Amino acid sequence: MTTMRPGLRKLVLTAHITASTGWLGAVLVFLALAVIGVTSPDSATVRAVYRVMEPAAWYALVPLAVASLITGLVQSLGGAWGLVRHYWVLFKLLINVGALAVLLMYTATLGSLARLAAAADADMRVLRGPSAVIHSSLALVLLLLATVLAVYKPRGRTPYAPGPAAAPKQVKNI
Description:
The protein is mainly alpha-helical and 174 residues long. It has one domain. It is 73% helix and 0% strand. It has 5 helices and no strands. Helix 1 (6-39) runs antiparallel to helix 2 (43-77), helix 2 runs antiparallel to helix 3 (87-118) and helix 3 runs antiparallel to helix 5 (131-152). The longest helix has 35 residues, at 43-77. The protein starts with 5 loop residues before the first helix and ends in a 22-residue tail after the last helix. 24% of the residues are buried.
């Protein structure tokens, strides 16, 4: 197995942390917007929330999620942990792919809500529904779980892990 040189490894790690924390932050903003959309008594505010959420999903959430996935793949394939050797890496991959898939499917719902919000005769009960709050909350939980896995790196090797059960040595970041 070939591992990345230290300078490249740090660059990829920095890109991965930046994309992942950006994604987490964007989800927090979406959750705040969703709560405003559900609770605001002002119809114009509710409409504005959903008209902003759709393009923000395409210009912030989706690119950050894709960047997190790509940098995570590069990091695992070019690093000492590997992609399928440790359960925590595999679980992070599944969380990322699953969350990205749900996000891409949910953009259709966001598009429908944005079109509804733009209509003069919009049903405000639909716009004040809990869908965006639920999706944002679940995304937040999943991304926090991925963060915990990345920090604590629980033991457990998959059957695809060659060699002894020792984990790779941690490299000190200076």
